[in-house]
Amino acid sequence: MSNCWRLDDGHQTLVLAATDDLLPQVIYWGQALLGSEDCDDLAAAHKQDFTGGMLDGNPDLSLCPEASQSFPGQPGLRCRDAQGAVLHPKFRFVSAEEGWQALALTYSDPKLGLTYQAHFALTPDTGLISTWATVTATKPILLHWLAAPVFPAPHYSTEMLSLSGSWIGEFQVNSVPWTAGMHMRESRTGRSGHEHFPGLIIPECGTSNTAGKAYGFHYGWSGGHRMIAEELPDGRRQVQFGNATDSELTAGLHFETAKLYAVFSDHGLNGCAVAFQRYLRDHIVTFPQSAQPRPVHYNCWEAIYFDHDIPVLQDIASQAKALGAERFVLDDGWFGQRDDDTSSLGDWQIDPRKYPDGLGPIVDHVIALGMQFGLWFEPEMVNPDSALYRAHPDWALGPKDQLLGRQQMVLNMALPQVGDYLFDSIGALLHDYDISYIKWDHNRNLPISDAAQTRSSYALLARLRAAFPHVEIETCASGGGRIDFGILQHTQRVWLSDSNDALERSRIQHGAALFLPSAVTGSHVGPRLCHTSGRTFDMQYRAWVAAQRHMGFEMDPRELTEIEALALKDITQWYKDNRAWMANGDILRLDSADPSVLAEMQLARDGSRFVVFSNQLDSSAQINSRPLRLTQLDPNAIFAVHLLNRDKVHPLSRGNLLLKSQELQASGAWLMAQGLNLPYAVPSSIWVIEGRKLSL
């Protein structure tokens, strides 16, 4: 006898089945099944054989695998009672609540006083499944590990793709082979981390960016996570995500995972990417002025660092405006006695030495230019050399003798008085000045992994947004150290990396596109000489890389030559002309036959137009460029295609290619099957190809 539940969104089907009153398991997840399919028959067909040297059956790979059922792999729940005794729950069915494309299942262990719930919700317009789990106890328990509802991984896969990295090298895509046993990644830094982005994509064999089947996961939590991908001795595979182990520091009666977002794709990795991009943009992020286009951003950090001078800043703002900027952000150094990164974090009062009349002169100048004004904060941190720490050393998280990071400590956000102080300090500035943007930084790891810290930071962000709904907030953590769907419920922009090296940035953006849409992804034109890599790139390359996302500048405009300024203004104007449809479009990674070419295509939501960025990272192994195939076009439509920057053709390109001189008209089928022949390209250059649909 079995209990079965089924969820469909027209694109995919998820089937759960349970034997008797046991926890259910996912017996099917993939392309949509016939509505007439009998779930009891599927449950019977899902059963596997067993043989010698095994138990007399296969313990279920349930939504929360239980050690009490002799499950041979990692359990989904590990906890103790208040005295430290290990608990091994035996959950049994209580109830099922079925809604429109939603399901909530409740199970309990009356003997231990534990109740487990699993929740599922489908979002048909994106194809994304949201799922989370809760555990409730009648007496306090100590939680070691709670997984969100567990999914099986496909057998027709030899690898899994994870995103890892480091400061100035985030979102690197790594292929990890499936082998017997467990692959585990855990971020214990107290934030989602540069090192282990909380995402996983499992492609089936032969899957590419544009074709094949893949299964994608993202855990929407900012406080550190754990991911387990395990192949059991019997060959089955499971994927678990949850908060970092032992990050619940006190006993409690109720625990809840963050949401795990999952998607099945039959359009390659791009199918997963588009689902994540659309869900984040359309269902999670709430922009203060959603009807307004994303403003071109200017940040003064790499122009002045800590050297604040009002006339200089006013001049820089005026020059940034002339280049096309629409928002000016005053970065670190405006508060306390902040002349370097060793002091004053926590002292969120304006430095009278640098701003004797307050921020008014710079704010008023920026507003008079017709630009928005933004301000940098790092609210969750404190320097030992600060008035705040001297007054309240007990507000710091962790021991007094802890290892510092960037000469700073972390405030204990779970203390109500800390949240009140920060809300009052930040709120006073937002009240007194016309500030419409906050860059919210987070520049060191937590000394301990503490889930309460994350929940309290979320609460402060929510409180500020409720009081100042017109203010947009960017999440930054030494660049991309805290980027996930959890923090983006409270923020509207991410600072992807502290690297403004256009070549490195291209790779970082390309990896991040598996999860993040262009509308939230900040990308800036950096200085001619990149301060993190020491490399130089021409303005065309720097500007086109930035124009692929939410465009901004982060250099000293006074360093620009007339030619550089003209190029930047032209590309910025192109961004402004196209940002509306790009912000709502899909970023599609292209399959390049040339490994030295990194290419992507941004496609309008209605398929009426596209732009391709073909980035020549290095010299090609062969003389001629290989054709570049496009994707997701209407095969029966004719498209007009032109090379936007054909005036930048290198003298070594001597052939009479069509796109060098005129527009190409071809069907979507031809563009996807044959592809585009592009001119010769030197390393660190980009071809920009625009297309628009002419007819059906």
Tell me what the structure shows.
- By secondary structure, the chain is of the alpha+beta class.
- Helices cover 20% and strands 31% of the residues.
- Strands 4, 5, 6, 7, 8, 9, 11, 12, 14, 15, 18 and 19 form a twelve-stranded antiparallel β-sheet that branches. An eight-stranded parallel barrel has the order 20-21-22-25-26-27-28-29, surrounded by five helices. It has a six-stranded antiparallel β-sheet with strand order 30-31-32-35-33-34.
- A hairpin with a 4-residue loop joins β7 and β8.
- α4 packs parallel to α5, α7 (416-432) runs parallel beside α8 and α9 (502-512) runs parallel beside α10.
- It is globular, with a radius of gyration of 27 Å.
- 49% of the residues are buried.
Short description:
By secondary structure, the chain is α+β, with helices and mostly antiparallel strands. It is 20% helix and 31% strand.
